[in-house]
Amino acid sequence: MKKLILGLAVTASSLAFAQQTTSSSNPVTFGIKGGMNVSSLSKGADLSDSKSKIGFNAGVFANIPVASSFSIQPEVLYNDLGSKVTREYNVLGNTYRDESSRNLGYIAVPVMFQYNATPEFFLEAGPEFGFLVSANDKFKSSTNNNTSTRVQSLNKDNFSTFNFGIGLGAGYYFTPNLGITARYTAGLTDVYKNNNGSAVRNNVFQVGLAYKFK
Q: Where does the UniProt annotation place the signal sequence (predicted)?
């Protein structure tokens, strides 16, 4: 929790800094964003056959110009991360398909440093701080004729509450308000608490839309 507060403090510091460095010609702008996550967990001993999982992200941001071609963009997002395992097998002529997904929900605070190559196109990089708010496994089994689904809550005490990663991305604004963004964030911290095996880290590719209020 203290580390998430640190991330929020960085965001607040960025906003305070912006009040001293921006002018009326380059004001701070606020916006909303959201899109699709393609997330995975790095392969630990028990995740050798895990695949990517589709999820989502959504939240708010502030874009803070600090120079003619540079800006800082702190964000607060809900991030749906995790991975998926799918197995198919045949028993007595029936085809069975089992699918399980590990769903980890985070409140994430990315702080992106952006280089504005043109007024429309930017490149970005920066840290992301996250706090785990939910953890569950979803199981889906199907045969030729039937499908069943169940969700099992997981004990969050078994997971690290703090997640830290580094993001790299780019974006393009079709209009002064509406743009498309893409970002890859590589996790640097272990998802599991007291993990004695190989570290398991969050990785996610995000693509979505951003809307600035002007």
A: 1-18
